Amino acid sequence: FPYQTVTGNFAKVIHGLNANQLTDQVIQRSKRMILDTLGVGLLGTSTEVCHKVTQYSKIYSSDLSSTIWGHLDFRLPPLYAAFVNGVAVHSMDFDDTWHPATHPSGAVLPAVIALSEAFPQKKKISGLDLLLAFNVGIEVQGRLLHFSREARNIPKRY
């Protein structure tokens, strides 16, 4: 179709991604990014801002629940677990960075893990599926950043 929109093309590319496209190099780098993000996030659980959002989020409950990193006895609905764990990662600001400035893993990994935990036991996803979801999230973020006019001006603002 010669007049396909940018959004339509973007959705087609993202929808078409599959685990067979993950090269050994992408898998190894993804694992390193995930390990780094988990480490930074665990350290971030000790920050004041993380304590505040954890306390705030305790008012929410759900039959579905996901882990709050660093808290074995406390779980939240996936949305709030992703929020709290994302705050933990970003509160340290040591997570991976791209240019123009963005922290891809800190936004993607907490959401992917929280959602994966919410699946029923009989529908749990594999490690390869988790890596694919992580990479799709990184790809979406990178493409959106690439499309953003504001992102192009970040270096000029500093």
Automatic annotation (TrEMBL):
InterPro entries: MmgE/PrpD_sf (IPR036148), MmgE/PrpD_sf_1 (IPR042183), MmgE_PrpD (IPR005656), MmgE_PrpD_N (IPR045336). GO terms for cellular component: mitochondrion. Residues 9-151 form the MmgE/PrpD N-terminal domain. One of its GO terms (biological process) is defense response. It holds the Pfam family MmgE_PrpD_N. GO terms for molecular function: aconitate decarboxylase activity. Belongs to the PrpD family. This is IRG1 decarboxylase. The lineage of its organism: Eukaryota, Metazoa, Chordata, Craniata, Vertebrata.
